[in-house]
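Schema walk-through. Below, the input block comes first and the output block second. Nothing else is stored per chain. Lengths vary across the set, and this one has 552 residues.
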Amino acid sequence: MTTIHTRARRRLRPALAVAAVIGLAVVGAAAPAQAVTIGNGALVYSPAAGTSFNPEGGRAAGTTYAKMILLKNSGTLNGTQIVTFDQLVLENGVQVYPIYRSTDNGTSWTRIAAVKPSTQFPTLTRTAQPALYETPIQLGSMPAGTLLLTGMIMPQDRSSSRLVMYKSLDHGVTWSFVSTIDTGGPATYDPSPTSTTSTVWEPSVNVDANGGLQVYFSDERQKASNVLQAVAYRRSTDGGLTWGSEVNVSAPTNKSDRPGMITVTRMGNGSYIATYEVVNRPSQSNNTAPVYFKISTDGITWPSTTSIGTAITLPDGRGIGSSPEVRWVPTGGANGTVIVSSKWALTPSGAIDGGQNFYVNTNYASGSWQRLPYPVTYDASDTRGGTFSGFAQGFDTSVDGKTIYQSTNVENLTTTYNDVRVGSLPLGAPQYEAESAARSSDTQLVTQGDAQGGQKVGYINTASSYVTFTVNAPAAGTYTVNVRYDNGSGGTSTHNVSIDGGSAFAVTYPKTVDYGRFQWAQFTATLSAGAHTLKFTKGSGFAELDQIQVFK
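--- output ---
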């Protein structure tokens, strides 16, 4: 997406939202480890009111680019979560890349380091667009488990752009400079076909099939070839000390399509998938930056480098747009799951319409894509007073691949900046859609693009209203039930839940921003093996149901 400040001001509308904390109704046993599922995740960082800047004018955002990794190649520290972000707050007159860590499943966070690029480059006092990576193998002198941080740095006047890499050999506590990957012209965002900009932006890291360290990035320096912007990579065979020549992944020659914000992951079949947004799509006047992808057999050679690839869409034609990230995980079926995040969802015509779901594919990106709910939601279309919420968010999965963790920027009603929050959800848990459940005739199906199946159940408004899910317990035991709901009533609401006709208990739903912004409630239930009914009836206030998840 290039520099987030100008572009977002051109393309987005203001935003404001509320981050609520969900109440927990417990039946039988304590909540499981995925505690940050409930509410809207756990707070990592909140910039104080009046502290954020925006060097290009417009509304200050506080934070963007909330990126995260979970350690998987670090022995006894595996499962530790590391987060960084673009912190639009100066520390002693310069920007830093802050490093936060959680060792308790994302429930609490501690700042453990601050990477200060101006130490190596005293005139480059601004940071942007960080990315994190943990090396899966030894690369040069770097052992497996080395943490890599890449980003774009620039002077205060944004008159140049430089892509740099840092490494940590102690899991994020201390960092050292590795190298400059590439340099470019002023960090100025101009997506017009007549643009003369020459910036390099948005680095991300991967390792290819031959063990080469790659940094992917956006490149505006190919305009002599009628390329408005390309996504490309440079490759290192000595652990990032030196870098080879540039190789394009997508470089359209029509001077209009503008791919950017590329990330790459290796899939279980050995192939690699790259995702990126394409600015000026569907058109220059309707610029919502839909997400496209390409497949490479080895992560080194990419097909049809002048094409933009294939758009990610649901069977109904809906898509996603802006600042994507992609990962493959081995869970979800025989072929694992490709997971893509983005800032917003798009209608089939390419208009912004919410954005509260990952898009996932269980056949190595071939065939149909489906929704998977976000653990943390935000005002994707930026309509309530803030800006940049959900922009360039990150995610990762647990060591066993059974839980997904999401880091993102969520608008704060009090400061009008973005907080950084992290939440989690199980992967592969059975999901039961409210629109497929038995329900009373006085309830109604409500169509909404961000609902998991495109619909939710509303108007659970009277004593006779009910929604009854039939769920299956594969074995006897204590199960967790996640409830995806919205509650725009302005106050706390409840439903009364009974299991198999037993005594009802209350599930509490703190308010959400409106009837359309989802969050999570949670309870546990002891079930015998077999089928069970979970009946939701009206309690106090008014809430709507999208789905439940039932898992151990």
